[in-house]
Amino acid sequence: MKLAGQSTVLRLTVLSAPLLAALLAAFAFGPYPLSPAEALAALWAGPSAESDAATVMWQLRLPRILAGLLVGAALSAAGAAYQGMFRNPLVSPDILGVSAGAGLGAALAIYFGLSLAAVQALAFAGGLLAVAAVVFVAGRVRRHDPVLVLVLAGVAVGTLFGAGISLVKVLADPSVQLPSITFWLLGGLNVVSPGDLVLAAPLVAMGLLPMALLRWRVNLLSLSDEEAAALGVNVARLRSTLIVSATLVTAAAVSIAGVVGWIGLVVPHAVRLLVGPEFSRLLPASLLLGGGFLVAADTLARSAAAIELPLGILTALVGAPVFLWLLARPGRGGT
Amino acid sequence: MNVLETRGLAIGYRHRPVGEGIDLTLEADEVLCLLGPNGGGKTTLFRTLLGILPPLAGTARVLGRSLGDWPRAALATRLAYVPQSHAGLFAFTVEEVVLMGRTARLPRFATPSAHDRAVARDCLARLGIDHLAARIYTEISGGERQLALIARALAQEATVLILDEPTASLDFGNQLRVLKEVDALKARGFSILMSTHQPEHALRVADRIALLKAGRMVGQGPRALLTADALAALYGADTAEVAHSLPQLAKA
């Protein structure tokens, strides 16, 4: 199915269908199963209705679904932006080390017992530091394929920040801080409170805004720098703006849901197959499908087995094989 | 007024100068062909003229205005660059690639309008490749990609074109097609600076030629400057060998 040539309305309708299906499933499935009709009735009854269904829906399921939408959309949009601006179909927030950098910042903030706002600020700082280190190192290596160098630099920087996270865990108070750091590091939506959402959503929106406004110009970064410059783009300024935006979006997602890997790699690829690489179509489609994908994965995580499966395991099961396929297939071009 | 003019221009990178003392003039409505061995500074000179590398010394003017005084977007509406045909990375359509040429004329936060699309279609049609509009750029042939990149430069609606070896890596038929387009563009009033490795292409399309060797301009003038002696000196080859390979050269 190629949606690139279709009208905007048709395209958005087709792309919204999996999202709506994921939402409906997420409302219905779980340890307290509801039929879709019961689920919608509980939603309609409002948060103050006195029924078990309404309590489950409004206290537990809805915040978690909103968190899934927010985190999935955020990481997918960030992945789409990173892939375009680095001319590299193999990168994503986690492969570039941004997630690990944000994770270390957040773990440090938890270790020092700081507020959620500080957790987010340090996550952002850690993410920016990681991506800056990766870009700096990759820029100095000229002997090798730049696509692979960026990936390798990202993996190394990510490992370094991962070691930092482990160190924080060793130092943390085993009765108070360690459980909360570990719990959060596993990556999941079960720990996201409505208060977290209220703090993270504006940050995600702030990061998405420049991407949305510059949606046409982002395309030109997939050309060589001199071509883009000759077409009238201030390449350095545009790329820095997008790095800061995508890193802010990633940090906001990581600070509430931990390091949820792979989604930022897989979703933009799937979306490019559907709507093509043009960013003004790629961005909204990544938001829709990324949100839907994470809500679906999380629904599976909390209802497939007797115990809740960590979300990161499910996204890795999908993402790692896709990454290997991209790496191995001839041409290694963008989809 | 000269379209492009450099005086005593030194080019290169801060710690690695590539050339100096370059005086180059591109007049209005002419085709100037730049020849010279690899590593002689052709690409660095183009990067400087496009405002990507700052001049190390001397002056460079585009349409009478010093290069440093041109805002990037304004320059892109006057001066367009056609790189060598490249593979591309993401699967943009040919029309999207050509639309990228409209960027300098768009407000910062805008996407191309219906008018921009019409201009892009028109540029594709002028090069006879409008049937490729919906095709994927990464999947068409090298010759078609080169024409698409020329169409993108036309979409900038600039009057000065810089072409970097536009016939390199094309088959003979596509080389002829590109050379024919260079002629047609000149006839339509474009001023064109192009580099080439093939002297016979320079003889075919150039009004004047410029010879760049080891970062220095070693000759500049009418097509008749392209003699077997001049080419032999430029490329470090044997004069008799050059004359034998290119019998159409003017006799020294």
In angstroms, what is the radius of gyration of chain A? 20 Å
- What would you call the quaternary organization? heterodimer
CATH superfamily of chain A: ABC transporter involved in vitamin B12 uptake, BtuC
The overall average pLDDT of chain B, rounded, is 94
> How many structural domains in the coordinates of chain A?
1
Radius of gyration of chain B: 18 Å
Greatest interface and its participating residue counts: A-B, 32 and 36 residues
Count, helices of chain B: 9
Average of per-residue pLDDT values of chain A? 90
Architecture overview:
The complex is a heterodimer of chains A (335) and B (252). Chain A is mainly α and 335 residues long. Chain A has one domain: Orthogonal Bundle (ABC transporter involved in vitamin B12 uptake, BtuC), CATH 1.10.3470.10. Chain A has 14 helices and no strands. In chain A, helix 1 runs parallel beside helix 13, helix 3 runs parallel beside helix 8 and helix 4 packs parallel to helix 6. Chain A is globular. Chain B is α/β, with parallel strands linked by helices and 252 residues long. In chain B, the strands form 2 sheets. Chain B has a 6-stranded mixed sheet with strand order 6-7-8-3-9-10, with helices on one face. Chain B has a 4-stranded antiparallel sheet with strand order 2-1-4-5, covered by helices on one side. Chain B starts with a strand and ends in a 7-residue tail after the last helix. Helices cover 33% and strands 24% of the residues of chain B. Chain B contains 9 helices and 10 strands. Chain B is globular and about 55 Å long. Chains A and B meet through helix 9 and helix 10 of A and helix 2 and strand 6 of B.
